[in-house]
Amino acid sequence: MNILQKIPRLFIKASKHHACVSRSFYLYSPEPLHPILDKVPKWTTAEEAVEVIESGHRIYIQGGASSPLSLVDAMCAHGEKAKLKDVEVIEAPIQARAPYTDPKYEGIFRPNSFFISASLRNAVAEGRADTIPIFLSEIPLLFRRRLLSLDVALISLSPPDKHGFCSLGPGIDCTRAAVQNAQFIIGLVNKQMPRTFGDGLVHSSHIDILVEADEPLTEIAPTTLSPEILEVARLIADNLVEDGATIQTGIGNLPAAVLHKLQNHKDLGIHSEMFSDSVVDLVECGAITNAKKAIQTGKIVSSFAIGSKRLYDFMDDNSFVAMCDCSFTNNQSVICQNPRVTAINTCLEIDITGQVCSDSLGTYMYSGFGGQIDFIRGAAVSLDGEGKPIIACTSTVHRKNSGNKGVEESRIVTNLKPGAGVVTTRAHVHYIVTEYGIAYLFGKNLRQRAYELIKVAHPNHRETLEKAAYERLKCMPSP
């Protein structure tokens, strides 16, 4: 054995306050499950831990329910006190609370997110933050190929077990790749963090500093479902979801409503980028067995979860759930192997040719790509030929206009708003569902697509859409 291979990872990079590990991963394995001999993390306070952060550093913050809020607050206080400059904050896909986006931190922190959640929209719109358009499945590549080198990662962990193993809880997504590639890792050991199985297990020897905490996880409150959303959900559940299907849903009211309508289905499986409380309901009523799945048969597979405490209690120490790296959960070649893959995602706007805008309202950046294309494509190329890629939305949306008065806009439009981005192309689209019906677009020409989409538009907008479609296509929409 080479002498270098005998050397454990040592503290060889000095910073102002702490020794810092140069993460070569002891030359023979980047696997965070592998214990590192003769290395133990230091236990300290959040305030002392974040003192390793210096001007110009790139910081990764775990997101969603697993966001290490105490460390984030300490980082913000340290940035202000130490007069730091140009610290880039790389966000995981969902951040429920992001205090570093406050205008007072401009020049100290520059957020850079893979998905624009509500906490970041104003900062992006005002030019104080950035967003990276990317498929969820490919985010880990940015770290693994060193396209985004990480100086420090702030993560949350369950308490170590007797062997020193911790869990990343309900937030694996791209965090595992961040742990593998960050130069310095600070872990918030939260007594309330559920211990999950899958790719989220990390040996504590890979962590440089541990901070003890006892704080509740971020929760999202249940929302009232409108009659329109419930009707969209009914149409999907009654017509498109079959027994034995493998389900993927995005985040939001509509996917939750669809799951609520599936309680009389049998042998459903879950292979999704995320899930929430509605999946727990389906497990408890016996609708989800995962028995028919080809990939990790018998298990719910996901990369992150966010919901209520009930959800986190369900996940804790539950072998029925496998939380995995998003490069696996969202890999099209993996997704397509499951039976009857039914991918249910939402959007902001659809034009009459089938172009789907999901990340922006005109030039106003609203969200991101997430896993929509990963699963829309995975369902479309299902090996059994029974996959169903579904884009679902209500036919209208209430938005404020320039006079700050409410106006009902059609989600189905002749042309997307100027500056709007296409997330799902017209070639990717198969099913579009509104409360007025199901439009099947796969294999149809532009004239036929316009006809199908106008049929599921709100009646108040159909005549206008038909006239505008004629102007655009130079022929009448028809079957």
Describe the structure.
By secondary structure, the chain is α/β, with parallel strands linked by helices. The chain contains 14 helices and 30 strands. The strands form nine sheets. It has an eight-stranded parallel sheet with strand order 3-13-10-8-4-5-6-7, with helices on both faces. α3 links the parallel β6 and β7 (about 130). α7 (about 255-260) packs parallel to α8 (about 275-285) and α13 runs antiparallel to α14 (about 460-475). The model is unreliable at about 1-30 (pLDDT under 50).
Task: Give the topology.
Elements: E1 11-14, E2 19-21, E3 42-44, H1 46-49, E4 58-61, H2 69-81, E5 87-91, E6 109-113, H3 121-125, E7 130-131, H4 139-144, E8 152-157, E9 165-167, H5 175-181, E10 184-190, E11 197-198, E12 201-203, E13 209-213, H6 227-239, E14 246-249, H7 253-260, E15 269-270, E16 274-275, H8 277-284, E17 300-302, E18 304-305, H9 309-315, E19 321-323, H10 326-329, H11 332-335, E20 341-346, E21 349-351, E22 356-357, E23 360-361, E24 364-365, H12 372-380, E25 388-392, E26 396-400, E27 406-410, E28 412-413, E29 431-434, E30 437-440, H13 446-455, H14 459-473
Parallel strand pairs: 3-13, 4-5, 4-8, 5-6, 6-7, 8-10, 10-13, 11-19, 14-15, 14-20, 16-18, 17-19, 20-25, 21-28, 25-29
Antiparallel strand pairs: 1-2, 9-12, 21-22, 23-24, 26-27, 29-30
Helix pairs in contact: 6-7, 7-8, 13-14
